[in-house]
């Protein structure tokens, strides 16, 4: 089984969205890599794949899926895996990832990334499916922790223990979303640094950063929603610095999917991540 490339170490990238195709290809901005949602390129031609191939001529690629539904009890989708495999063969991405969640049941797909119950039964189920996916794709994948707004009473272990154990048992890597940790920590009342300390260093192959939205709820409280529609919050940058201290200059990606800003704003966010990585490296040395 092929392993994810380490060539992106120290790189900060941005998510490439259709609104920025032309400007990105023409300007080739100074970002370390690009990331796209795999399913948007499952078509075997057309404008999206055309521009992605052009972008890949100047920038390494990370493929980030949202439709694998690794935690579902539905059978793994062979058409999905087949097209993903073709895309990997065509584009030769440095990294391939999806989410530690479920998003379908009975063949019906939810427009969301839903959290799992953190039980031994769910753990064994996910591990077996990850192993099948990796055998099918002939390479290791990364799984990302999702933001959550509810918890299951059946859960027998914390999320960070579940995530780490999935990586240990299946051989997959971890895409650690620092914003999702911050959002879930606020919503469920745990300490985000505890999450970071519980994740073994060797499994973390990529980090995500994004913006969130505050939403008032009954009783004067508020929850945080992972909307990818705003700049990275100061508190998330602080948590990211702590992640760099623990995991080193892991490839880091700024996600922005709604209320998309001009491309230079995204490039500036990636530059900030890169500056923090350089500062960490200098301090560590």
From TrEMBL:
It holds the Pfam family MbnB_TglH_ChrH. InterPro entries: MbnB/TglH/ChrH, Xyl_isomerase-like_sf. Gene3D superfamilies: Divalent-metal-dependent TIM barrel enzymes. Belongs to the UPF0276 family. PANTHER family: UPF0276 PROTEIN HI_1600 (PTHR42194:SF1). This is UPF0276 protein WKW77_18320. It comes from Variovorax ureilyticus.
């Amino acid at each position: 089984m092929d392993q994810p490339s380490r060539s992106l170490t120290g790189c900060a990238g941005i998510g490439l969205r259709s609104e920025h195709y032309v400007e990105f290809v023409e300007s080739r901005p100074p970002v370390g890599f690009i990331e796209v949602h795999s399913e948007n390129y499952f078509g075997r031609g057309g404008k999206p794949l055309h521009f992605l191939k052009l972008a890949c001529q100047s920038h390494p690629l990370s493929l980030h899926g949202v439709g694998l539904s690794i935690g579902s009890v539905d059978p793994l989708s062979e058409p999905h895996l087949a097209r993903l495999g073709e895309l990997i063969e065509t584009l030769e991405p440095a990294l391939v990832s999806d989410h530690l969640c479920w998003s379908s049941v009975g063949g019906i797909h939810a427009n969301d990334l839903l959290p799992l119950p953190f039980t031994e039964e769910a753990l064994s189920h996910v591990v077996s499916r990850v192993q099948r996916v990796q055998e099918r794709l002939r390479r290791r994948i990364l799984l990302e922790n999702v933001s959550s707004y509810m918890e299951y009473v059946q859960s027998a272990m914390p999320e960070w223990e579940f995530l780490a154990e999935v990586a240990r048992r299946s051989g997959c890597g971890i895409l650690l979303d620092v914003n999702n940790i911050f959002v879930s920590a606020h919503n469920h009342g745990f300490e985000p640094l505890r999450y970071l300390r519980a994740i073994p260093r060797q499994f973390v192959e990529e980090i995500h950063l994004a913006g969130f939205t505050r939403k008032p709820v009954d009783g004067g409280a508020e929850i945080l929603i992972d909307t990818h529609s705003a700049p990275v919050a100061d508190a998330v940058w602080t948590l990211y610095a702590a992640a760099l201290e623990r995991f080193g200059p892991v490839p880091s990606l700024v996600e922005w999917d709604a209320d998309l800003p001009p491309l230079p704003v995204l490039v500036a966010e990636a530059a900030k991540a890169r500056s923090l990585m350089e500062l960490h490296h200098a301090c560590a040395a």
